[in-house]
Amino acid sequence: MARVFNFSAGPAMMPLPVLEEIQAELIDYKGSGMSVMEMSHRSKVYQQIIDEAEADIRELMGIPDNYKVLFVQGGATLEFAMIPMNLRKNGVFDYIVTGTWSKKAASEAKKYGKVNVIATSEDRNYSYVPDVSDLPIDDDADYVYICENETIHGTTYKELPNTKGKILVADQSSMFLSKPVDVSKYGIIYGGVQKNVGPAGLAIVIIREDLINPELDKSVPTYCSFATHSENGSMYNTPNCWAIYCCGKVFKYLKKLGGLEAMNKINQEKAAILYDFLDNSKMFKGTVDKEYRSLMNVPFVTGDADTDAAVVAATKAAGFDNLKGHRSVGGLRASIYNAMPKEGVQALVDFLKKYEEEHK
Amino acid sequence: MARVFNFSAGPAMMPLPVLEEIQAELIDYKGSGMSVMEMSHRSKVYQQIIDEAEADIRELMGIPDNYKVLFVQGGATLEFAMIPMNLRKNGVFDYIVTGTWSKKAASEAKKYGKVNVIATSEDRNYSYVPDVSDLPIDDDADYVYICENETIHGTTYKELPNTKGKILVADQSSMFLSKPVDVSKYGIIYGGVQKNVGPAGLAIVIIREDLINPELDKSVPTYCSFATHSENGSMYNTPNCWAIYCCGKVFKYLKKLGGLEAMNKINQEKAAILYDFLDNSKMFKGTVDKEYRSLMNVPFVTGDADTDAAVVAATKAAGFDNLKGHRSVGGLRASIYNAMPKEGVQALVDFLKKYEEEHK
What we know:
Oligomer: homodimer
Distance between the termini of chain A: 33 Å
Strand content of chain A: 15-25%
Number of domains of chain A: 2
CATH class of the largest domain in chain A: Alpha Beta
Structural class of chain A: alpha/beta
CATH topology of the largest domain in chain A: Aspartate Aminotransferase, domain 2
Number of strands of chain A: 14
Largest sheet of chain A: 7 strands, mixed
Radius of gyration of chain A: 21 Å
Order of helices and strands of chain A: EHHEHEHEEEEEEEHHHEEHEEH
Number of helices of chain A: 9
Largest interface: A-B, 70 and 70 residues
């Protein structure tokens, strides 16, 4: 059977050429006589895999030398705790809450200090990003936290917040590697890779070296200290070797496509196909204010829950998968990450157009 | 090229028929039109994968109904912290230290309470397991902890400790699914899967339900609470979906081979080939007291570090991989987990015999 267009919010599509390479190497990686899944993480052959992955993401993102790249398990959920545990000095944390994921992060941080929600878009169900040009940043704030692309609500930042000199921490999970970013503006960028890069079970943490504190409170698990991972090349213990390998393949693929500038251009084009349709449709409309629309996650509704459900069922029957919106927004959501081909978005729009015509 | 005999302590060999199945399904899992790596963990097709994996390991190990099976990231290293954080009542933890891994676990537990080392084999470099029939168990001990098979030192327990009614917690990482165990004797059994089952990045935790405490100290990260994983079917956040899938394949393979009784028989036979050779060799000898020898990890030495190194180099040149012993024991170590075929062990012994004859 053909591969489906999978609009899942994550785990999500991976590039077919990457999957084909992985498949070809699965039993015998480059004459090593073993699968990557079977390799000692201490072996030369594996060390080369992780070293290349790091070098390639450094090149793709233009990561400055004073930043470390860490490969950590536990996903964003564990990062929600690790960030306050590792950055805590005054125990005051400023959060901008623009959706489910920044809200969860703020809630977890409360375990470790005082959380100030310095801006939120909760008043209109997180359908926009608040003005972040002049926020009441706390003088004692250890950092300012954002989720730069909210997967469920489909919003993204147009510009980064003015942190007034405080450290900026960004969860980029659902926009990771989707466009160029200026890493030097952040203290920490992290992302679970299972949306825009590879298989689940791995977060990539890009952290400015001076923020790595080897002298944490003793209640912090050894695994949860960034220093543990940093001092041991992400191999204090056995990492998710397979996910690192797969992500490394995706990094090389993105480089070949022209890097993040090229990806951004493709992503802009893809999103425009869908948003243009939504803006001209009488049946469907996007749920997010235009200027804050995510290029990656596109929620939309008909305005009637039963109709929404019927459309989801129809897309599924037509071979489009995972278009049901998250229950907190309802309706439909098309996640169109890097690996979703333009033809997939076009085919979905064609289908929705036809559906609309047939159900006027 | 042919697949090598890979004696790595972990990650380690997986059964070839399993790898072949995974390879065949890599791009399109059973007509779903997508790779398992691309599936939403909330989809029906993935739910079936994780449900079957759990059902199969329950059947293999005979896990009673009052035990939960959890799929957690972060490896044994995170478990070292999670166990005291989750089981802490009196804040007193009894540890039996029989090698590197139980020592590390005890060290981590000190962050969360008072650790009593109630027995250790440190006096003879962890080359045996101390008598555990009548230990000075603390009246207030929240649990008694063992590493049931020490990967580096190559020891295993002949019988479980008499915990005098206290909860027994066992790290079974390097013996996981190698033989039948009576789960009801344990409060918690856990194992990183990257030695005896599948790819790295996943620990399986088998925990008696009454030990799951949803009311932990607030300093415990949400991810580190067993209740978080238990209450959400190991899907509070996106799990390591790929590793769970691969482990599920291995579970089915083990069932087909006859289950853990059959595996134990094969493992006994494999280990006997190597230990018989060592016991009759004039050049090589095992480092562990006979009655505590692991069936999985077999450290051995020549008594001379240069000769050890020469032998390791010769094995490598002959196509046997990862036989270098851990630096804390020196010499060589052959890890002969479930997936190492008997022919691999026999071929290694044949090679070592020949080497010995040629270097008399």
